[in-house]
Amino acid sequence: MNINLTISKDAKLNGKRAAELIANLINEAIKERGKARIVVSTGSSQFEMFEALIKLDVDWSKVEMFHLDEYVNLPESHIASFRKYLKERFVSKVNLKAAYFVSGEGNIEENISYLTKELRKDIIDVGIIGIGENGHIAFNDPPADFETDEAYKVVTLDQKCRAQQVGEGWFKSIEDVPTQAISMTPKEIMKAKHIVTVAPHSVKADAIYKTITTPISPMVPATLLKTHPDWHLFIDDASASKLFSMV
């Protein structure tokens, strides 16, 4: 199992430690290649990481950003839009070289084609990849498609995933949560040179336990991360609670 595990006492320290590693990896890429390309996650589990990351010493003018997913037919003005999330919490706070957004509005096939073209122009240095309550990575809910060679695809969200969005306060009810989203695929995620996962809070405890203890399986999509040559998992005491019971 390929895993570099860091457990912190709380989400704030967890986010700080993850952000420090992310900044170091970005700076290494800039030093080696003159630029860096990153993929970022969203959701409430990433709040502390972004808060810490924007304060660190990084030449953002040499960094290109992509992100993992977006709901189909959800306007950017909606509180749950990941484009809105990223612009408010990250993109507006730093001077990025470029930011490429997943859009679920308009011609989705054209949006995916353009994004794929830009994404595959060069390597991704750092993938910041969260883990959902159902074990998903991006919006690849179980059973995840580990075989597709597409970079992004339209996926149907399962009930647990949609319930998570309500639980985090993005939607008032599960009926309000879109049933489909555009998601980066598992194979594409795994192409990143380094992967950093930030997954605090007790609601993630079961997913973290299953990710670490389950053999590689599309029924627990995050288990695929264990096959990556440089995967760093940052969790807090709350999300690690089921692991402690193993000791």
TrEMBL record:
InterPro entries associated with the record: Glc/Gal-6P_isomerase, Glucosamine6P_isomerase, NagB/RpiA_transferase-like
A Pfam family assignment: Glucosamine_iso
The Glucosamine/galactosamine-6-phosphate isomerase domain, residue ranges: 16-226
Gene Ontology BP, a term: glucosamine catabolic process
GO molecular function: glucosamine-6-phosphate deaminase activity; identical protein binding
A cellular component annotation (GO) from this entry: cytoplasm
UniProt name for this protein: Glucosamine-6-phosphate deaminase
Species of the source: Bullifex porci
Lineage: Bacteria, Pseudomonadati, Spirochaetota, Spirochaetia, Spirochaetales
